[in-house]
Amino acid sequence: MACKQLSKEDVLYMAHHVFLPPKLPTKGDAEPTQDGALADAALRSLRLFSSTTTQSAVQTAITMMENMTSVHEVGASYAVREDSLRNALQQLSKSREGKSADVIC
């Protein structure tokens, strides 16, 4: 996976959302593109961490982050892509039951 170059704004956004800021925010500051960069950075970190351990919890977290980033539009909104959500739910169903299950949408 190629490493995406993070902007200064992305890094500052991550610092303020990963670590407790010295002062709590007084207004919403959510930005879809920066949330996407934060999710991508978390996923890359999980993948790097998984190579150093055999814990299944790490793989579960990686799968969850992959599903989340594949389902949401990265960019100007927090929109959910219907087809991607349906596919993620079908994959989740297969992995939990060992067989395919119909997803009603």
From TrEMBL:
It comes from the Eukaryota. Residues 15-95 form the DUF6606 domain. InterPro entries: DUF6606 (IPR046541). It holds the Pfam family DUF6606. This is DUF6606 domain-containing protein. It comes from Akanthomyces lecanii RCEF 1005.
